[in-house]
Amino acid sequence: MSSHDDAARYFHHAAGIMGLSKNMQALLLTPEREMKVQIALERDNGEISTFIGYRIQHNSARGPMKGGLRYHHEVNESEVLSLATLMTWKTAVVNIPYGGAKGGISVNVKDLTQGEKDRLTRKFVDVIHDMVGPDKDIPAPDMGTNAQVMAWFMNQYSKFHGYNPACVTGKPVELHGSEGREEATGRGVVSLTERLLDKCKQNFQGSTFAIQGFGNVGSFAARRIEELGGKVVAVSDVSGGIWNPEGLDVMKLIDYAKDTGSISNFPGTDPIDNDALLASEVDVLIPAALGGVITSDNASTIRAKFIIEAANAPVTPEADEIFAHKGIIVLPDILANAGGVTVSYFEWVQNRQHFQWDVTRVREELHRILSDSFDKVWQIAEEKKISLRLAAYLLGIGRVGRATVLGGI
Ligand SMILES: NC(=O)C1=CN([C@@H]2O[C@H](COP(=O)(O)OP(=O)(O)OC[C@H]3O[C@@H](n4cnc5c(N)ncnc54)[C@H](O)[C@@H]3O)[C@@H](O)[C@H]2O)C=CC1
Ligand SMILES: O=C(O)CCC(=O)C(=O)O
């Protein structure tokens, strides 16, 4: 099964419950535009390397399309399409005025110098700039990209269209980025986890957590868990994992990872591999790296009571069914990690109003939107006796469907 088949399976299941006609299902699932472009890059040593870039614009019924830009060697058309589709439902679940898109370049960022990354980003903008922009499609950071990449994106876009910070979000705060965007996805993940645990009568304080991925999302989630009294006992990154049943000192680990480039060999911990991390005996498992890491092959090894999808699509539909039977609760990506795009929306609003919010306002508005969205999804799940994932899809697809019918085609 491809990534896109997986995303489509969740959609069809929800659309079936909603009684959507086959024609409406086809209209909502078919992407509006797919771009696949060649990016030729002159390397620092004078050689030419050729990369493939994608921007897939899935749906604009509710507003300009929105979604991250991923630099990773496994980026491919099916993955980008599935991620673009998820963005459409995600922006609808949190009810922000956007559609969904996603982009990426198939490249191993570790092989690029800073200068090469800058030029690669600009060459990508050169070929897609007419199809994106503040009222069309607004990129943001995802795996392998960050605020610096967004700054290059904005600078290059502005060369064609005039100075326009709202063309991209997740920029550095010094260059029209929003306070609180960098932490937003991880913080949002934890705020939703708190709410879920509360509903399920599980104390957050003292609960144990394992986190796969210690980049933007994983590290900010870990930091917030520690602040709120949870115990992070295992984390991993691409180089492997570490474990300490007494709990990790997250702030020290963040400094260590910054200094050494990885979490490996953090003093006072035992090494574990990524399979062992996923199978840790913890209350809450947070996959915060790649998609498709929990499948029917390893689902039976999972011992956590709750799985929080901080990453996009970490659990395959087959594994999802296994968890439903075992009573393991999954908080789905289109809600769990929506804090990032929500603060991206705040950034876009601030850029358009030329007015900067302080971090307190950002955090309060984020908390309000995520709490309301959680409550709506929870209520649908209770009423219809379905999983939180299906409930979130019902909410998201319903909003996109209504906008489509009202706006016409
Ligand atoms: N950055 C954002 O605001 C948002 C990100 N997400 C999703 O969260 C996930 C992580 O994104 P970021 O933290 O931004 O990426 P990042 O590039 O900052 O960090 C990725 C982390 O995953 C680790 N990793 C990579 N391959 C791995 C593997 N095979 N096993 C274990 N760890 C591995 C890396 O070492 C790194 O620690 C992605 O699925 C992304 O789509 C979702 C919503 C918003
Ligand atoms: O912040 C954004 O606009 C998009 C974030 C993103 O790519 C995601 O939620 O998967």
Automatic annotation (TrEMBL):
Keywords, in A-Z order: NAD, Nucleotide-binding, Oxidoreductase
The keyword Transmembrane belongs to this UniProt entry's keyword annotation: no
Annotated active site: 102 (proton donor)
GO biological process: L-glutamate catabolic process
InterPro entries listed in its UniProt record: Aminoacid_DH-like_N_sf, Glu/Leu/Phe/Val/Trp_DH, Glu/Leu/Phe/Val/Trp_DH_C, Glu/Leu/Phe/Val/Trp_DH_dimer, Glu_DH, NAD(P)-bd_dom_sf, NAD_bind_Glu_DH
UniProt xrefs under SMART domains: ELFV_dehydrog (SM00839)
Record-listed NAD(+) binding positions: 185, 216
Keyword Nucleotide-binding: yes
UniProt-annotated site: Important for catalysis, residues: 142
Single GO term (MF): glutamate dehydrogenase (NAD+) activity
Top-rank taxon, per record: Bacteria
Positions with a binding annotation for substrate: 66, 90, 344
Record-annotated Glutamate/phenylalanine/leucine/valine/L-tryptophan dehydrogenase C-terminal domain positions: 178-408
Pfam name, any one: ELFV_dehydrog_N
PANTHER family, sorted: GLUTAMATE DEHYDROGENASE (PTHR11606), NAD-SPECIFIC GLUTAMATE DEHYDROGENASE (PTHR11606:SF24)
Similarity comment text for this entry: Belongs to the Glu/Leu/Phe/Val dehydrogenases family.
Protein name according to UniProt: Glutamate dehydrogenase
Annotated source species: Polystyrenella longa
Gene name of this polypeptide: gdhA
